[in-house]
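Problem: given the chain below (724 residues), write out its structure.
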Amino acid sequence: MSFVERPHSGVPALCVKAGNHRGNRSNNVPSRSNGCEDSGLANRYIWLTVKEAGKLLGITDRAVKKNCKNKKYVTEMVHGNGGKQYRILLSSLPKKGQMNWRKEQLSVFDQEVLGVSSSSIDLTKLPELYLQAPDYNRRKYDKYYPFFQSVGFFEDLKLPRLSELKELIIHWNKEHAVYPVGLKSVYKLAKELKEKGVDAFFGGYGQNRGKHWSFADLKKQGLDRVVFGTFRKTFLQPSAPSIRECRGLAAEVALRAGFPPSDKLPSASAFLRRLYSDLEQEYGVSGTAAAYRARYGLAAFERKYGHYLDRDDSDCPAGYAWVFDHAQLDIMVKSPESERLVRFWISAVLDMRSWKLLYYVLKTSTPNAQDVIDVYLGAVARYGVPNTVYLDNGKDYRSKDFSGRTRKVRIEHDETWMRSVLGQTGVARVIFAIPFNARAKRIERWFLKLHEGFERILCKGYTGTNTYARTDELKRIIKRGDVLDYGDFIMMLDLFIDDLNNRKTDKQSKLHGLTPDEAFSKFLEERPMLDGEVLISLMGCTGNSRKIGRNGYEDVEVSKRIGYKALYWGPWMSVWKGKKETVYPRRNLIQPEKAYFFSGGTHEFLGIGYLDFFRVRSLAETAEEQRALSEAWASVNGERKLVKHAIEAPSSGLNGLDVFRMRLSDQKGLRIFRNGSAKETKPLESRKTGTEGGWSSIEELDELNEKMIRSEAQRIPESDEWDD
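Solution.
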């Protein structure tokens, strides 16, 4: 057994903490200051920092510094890490501070102040206790007994003075790195030795061994299944009950099943260890992770224990794949239309390779398919058509207008592809994210950056992500209307997005230190561009397939919005009147003045239709109303003339009159019937018919017919303007 030599009585007093360099101080340090007793600490030079003194006295650091300036404490100036600092002598503090410092040290500094009377401890019991104690309880003896013997504790049950004891502990830990001791644990064990004797040298583990039933005993009695099963079923509930409540419920079930009330079940921790072990053995998974999944749900399990896929973007050029999503901003802004406060929705598209935001749209109402189309076509106009788009699972993304998918109606593949914006622009692949899986879309992380770096930084009008994050002060700010105007908000948002697109990334990231803009330029693959007119024709929602009526195409959805019957007309629709084939439009429901029509069968572009083409004012007083009236009449008369020319155009063949002339003039020969048979004809005898009893000549009948046609034609106005 090794011993540590006790240092001489001239051990230096406790100085400031490591890292601080002491300056000059007076050799004559008073034992009292301001009438405060030193409580036996006068001969100890224990210096405290301002923060430590404030903690002991229960005052602020500022108050301590003020007292130092007023010379209420014995102080000195030292050069520390932050410059010149105060150091305060412990014995100069009020009695309250000195006693608080003593309590923190768990004991008084020297045994003279303690005033403990000398007594003896029966050490003869140690061999017997050591042999009877298990190995895990002997470790405490092996650790502390040699140290207490080396410092002479058993002579008069006194420990050395504090400063001396600290030096002893330092020397001991250098020589006994396997069993190092601490100051607090030494004082605590010294107190236990005086109270309990040598029994304090041994650990108390296993004292309850044999007092509780084991799971093997429960199994022998046939109670294991119902008792442990109750604990397992209640503990693995999504309501996450506490382990003690589950163990208590299992104990109640055990008593009802015949468990002796005087005995004890295994502890709650034993139940939990058994549960984890069973889950690992039965299913080959982590018992801790499985229980966490059962108690806190799949999302929490995925965040803490679930695997994740590390996507390799080396084969994905910039501009090749885009990610779409919506998010509602957590900040109130004054609406541009009125002074009311609104929370904007942002619909955005992000490049998957470079993490660059390509385009976004702000809207006060909930996003719909039209907003998705606007975002997509806005990005296409700048960067071309992508090969792949990664979409959310919302109904606005699954609409027929945008992606051609729907959940309610089963659509054929070719119709789905041709009627959708993605299909008509040439997108090769559409991927829908897993529902309720935010990690599947990279743009969700971009929205998190927007929230942390923009919304929370602005603070004005910040609503928080939930009611707990919305403090009373934020509520008062919103109630006062102290929020940003729409114009300022848009400018700040644009600046922040530009900053994100030009912000350097970590060299260990997938961009290898490049900014999103730099990565987009470096990894860009040229994409096909679309003509402006093509984009305009696609920026709209698809209407229902219907036939062309006498006044054009009737749009039911637009009719509901404008409050009256909405009819679209274009000159090309004249050909489609009376056809069985249907057409469908693409139009902007917010600005439905113009629509682009496609064939319902072949999906080819037919032409443009204009809303309310034939709807004119009854009085037509203004110049604009007169112009609309003239255009409508011109279209009506133009169609009439076309119809007239079509029916009056010369053509080969005979009419009915010519056939009857042939019959009358053919007095001889064969008569040809409709069924193809022939019969010899006989000359007809002339006889009187009709009311006058006589025949009119064919020339007279032709002349009468021509007069009737001319008089009917004069009834139709052929001029483009009304006569005053």
